[in-house]
Amino acid sequence: MAKFLGIDTSCYTTSAAVYDSTEGIVGESRIILSVKAGKRGLSQSEMVFQHVRNLPVILGQLEPWIDQINGIGVSVFPRRRADSYMPAFLVGKGMAESLSHVLRVPVFEFSHQENHALAAIQNMPEIWGTPFYMMHLSGGTQDVLSVEWEKDIMQIVDLIHSADITAGQFIDRVGVSLGMPFPAGPSMERLAMKHQQLYKVPVANVKNGFSFAGPEAQVQRDIQTKRYTPEDIAYGVFSSIGKSLHKVLDPYNGFIEGRTFIAVGGVMSNGYLRKSITEICRYKSLYPCFAKAEYSSDNATGNAFGAFMRYTHECSSLVAGALQKDYIFKNITISGTVSNLRFHFSGVIFFSLIDEESRITCRIGKMRSAFLGRRIKNGTEILILGNIKYDKISGRPIFQVDRILSSTESPILEKLDMLKKELKASGYFDIEKKKRLPLFPFRVGIVTSASGAVIHDIIRTGFLRNNSVRYSLYSTTVQGENAAADMAEMVIRANEETEPPDILIIARGGGAEEDLAPFNQRVLLDAVFCSKIPVISAVGHETDVTLLDLAADVRASTPTQAAEIAVPDKKYIEERIICLYLVLQKIIRDKLNISKLKLQHTLTIFNILAQRGKVTAVRKDILYNWIILDRKLEKVISNKKLDILERMQFLSRCGMEDILICSKHIKGADDGKEI
Fold it and tell me: Is residue 336 domain-shared with residue 273, that is, in the same domain?
């Protein structure tokens, strides 16, 4: 286990981060530089001053990891070219070199642009060393780039650039004019979510480039006229940027199909623009890749990850060279069971070959995958021929497959298929039997190992979304022979509590096929199916599908996504409530206006009638009719009263026997005869 420190001192953010080789980002801190209200930026001297003041503070917050680091990654210039220079980056460089001398660890230098790219690559480390395209969309940059590699160093070539101002400048300038703090991106995005009317912003026509000077001038004029609300203007700005991306990138023919397209920069944290990039990539047959939303803006996570990759590759190169020279690792025949089969978008196939005692990662190259890939699947028993090589990315040996000599069906896979069919027939997977998740859960139960990183990922993600939700850990094993029974016991225990949790999450990290075996066992599936509490399955990664995923009420691809599904976003709820309040206020206002109009119409008619003397006549007519009806009512009541008195006198004169005889004759009378 190794840790690496990342430092970045950009134009408006002082940041540092620590990357762990096994857990990923374990610590991250940043401070936004202060910009006076109404201002659109800072001078270089002011940037340097604030970086010097902020950097010791954020490094102090990461103190528990700094004395254990193995390397440092730092941004030393905006871009990797001779004319790219900015004094603000020298603050981070000086601090990195000082720590390097004290801690005796290497320093790896990156550009600020590479730092943004690495923040996205850490989600897909397999693209390290492979060519890709990148869009850098931030406050001062808007470029589409082609990236090649030369000895772990990115070689970046400009393809498309901005003709005047960038999308980030467009957003910031409009935001400042609307009274928002600089940089205005997050505030503009929250404002755009509340829009009610469509506000169209023109899209500039520039050959092979982006242009936002014209649209920005149009928006500034509309702000002065106050014809549109700030919410509608904010949405119109993002809509204009998305249309501009489509207008420039859709007709561009310089992309090679099948490559990864990375979109980075602070502006790319916007969900609307991410959707636009995804649509463009689908149209151009490219594979989209984004940094996490919280790492899209300026931060140091990319430098920390880059330091880990550079350090690993330098060590791995020595090992790989030694293996390549040794004939013992060539033309080897091995056998085992296929597990964790993955088809990479590049055409390469990865899988694990296991037996009772060992495991090895195998790779089938792009040229052989079309033929050999049809002969294997998870659970297949195979005999293969190939060479052992050293993978620089993972830092582990890998078996390069040349031929598949034989393949047979595994009995384990056959049993799993039979169990799946049995459960399906019993209704375990029926959609109509799935329980709904509560909209506002107060307590979430987590069935997982207490020692793993999964519990921390779920709680951290849930806390960021809504800090009012509470969590209960049902600690259990998630791997081994007794794991399924242990997890089933925890599910039953949660259901038997006096105050059970509102949602249960059964989670573990990714793993090979045999590691996920407990999540395919009947005892756990029975407990989940009988659970009165809604269950979210969060086992492994997107490619790992277990029977628990099918039996659970909701399936999440990762534990982090499970937290996002279970816990509603407090900010979104608040913004939605505000939006609904505004809509309701508008509806009430409209109804009041309609009622006012009706009342005014009634008053007008009344005044007209009063002027003509008709009101008095109507009033007299009403009084006359009232008196007549009152007299008629009194007469009817008087007649009824007399009739009742006569009947009572008659009954008092008659004896009981006469009454009974009379009653008997009445009962025996035929219809139509007088009694």
Answer: no
CA pair distance 623, 615, nearest whole angstrom = 12
**What pLDDT is stored for residue 669 in this prediction?**
45
Where does a domain end: 356, 390, 409?
A: 409
If you search the block for the tokens 């006569």, which residue do you land on?
A: 646
Q: Are residues 198 and 50 in the same domain?
A: yes
451 near 479, Cβ under 8 Å? Answer: no
Q: Answer whether residue 615 shows pLDDT above 80.
A: no
Which range of residues forms the domain containing residue 489?
Answer: 437-568
Above 50 in pLDDT, residue 238? Answer: yes
Residue 41 pLDDT more than 80? no
Asked whether residue 399 falls in the same domain as residue 441, the answer is no
Quote the Cα angle for 274-275-278, to 5°: 85
CA–CA gap between residue 271 and residue 290 (Å, rounded): 11
CATH number at 333 reads 2.40.50.140
Is the pLDDT at 305 greater than 90? The verdict is yes
Interatomic CA distance for residues 473 and 505, integer angstroms: 10
pLDDT higher than 80, residue 231: yes
At 170, the amino acid letter reads: F
Point out the domain boundary residue: 268, 303, 338: 303
The CATH code of the domain that includes 550 is: 3.40.50.261
Bridging pattern class, strands 69-77 and 107-111: parallel
**Tokens linked to 588:** 């009430």
In a domain, 429, yes or no: no
Winning range, highest mean pLDDT, from 194-203, 584-593, 633-642? 584-593
Q: What is the dihedral of CA 482, 487, 491, 492, to 10 degrees?
A: 10
pLDDT digits (tens, 9 = 90+) for 365-416: 888 877 787 778 777 888 888 888 777 666 678 888 888 888 887 666 667 7
Q: How far is the C-alpha of 266 from the C-alpha of 138, rounded, in Å?
A: 5
Whether residue 670 is contained in a domain is answered as: no
Q: Tell me, yes or no, whether 445 and 555 share the same domain.
A: yes
**What's the CA gap between 134 and 120, in Å, rounded?**
10
- Centre a 10 Å sphere on the Cβ of residue 306 and count the other Cβ atoms it contains: 30
Domain co-membership, 347 together with 262: no
Among 357, 352, 404, which residue's Cα sits nearest to residue 378?
A: 352
> What is the torsional sign of CA 569, 573, 576, 582?
negative
Model confidence at 330: pLDDT above 90: no
pLDDT of residue 507: 87
**Does 212 share its domain with 161?**
yes
Q: Within a domain: residue 595?
A: no
Q: What is the identity of the amino acid at 405?
A: L
Instruction: Report yes or no on 415 lying in a domain.
Output: no
The answer to whether the beta carbons of residues 503 and 566 sit under 8 Å apart is yes
Count H helices and E strands in the chain, helices first.
Answer: 20, 21
Given a cut of 70, whether residue 318 has pLDDT beyond it is no
Separation of alpha carbons 535 and 389, rounded Å: 43
Peptide bond into 568 cis (omega under 30): no
Q: How far apart are CA 224 and CA 47, in angstroms?
A: 32
450 pLDDT above the threshold of 50: yes
Question: Are residue 341 and residue 288 in the same domain, yes or no?
Answer: no
| CA dihedral of 587, 592, 597, 600, whole degrees rounded to 10 | 180
The number of domains in the chain is 4
Catalogue the E-assigned strands of 35-171: 69-77, 107-111, 132-137, 142-150, 153-162
Can you tell me the distance from the alpha carbon of 468 to that of 592, in angstroms, rounded to the nearest whole number?
A: 38
pLDDT band at 325 (very low <50, low <70, confident <90, very high): low
- 372 and 247 in a common domain: no
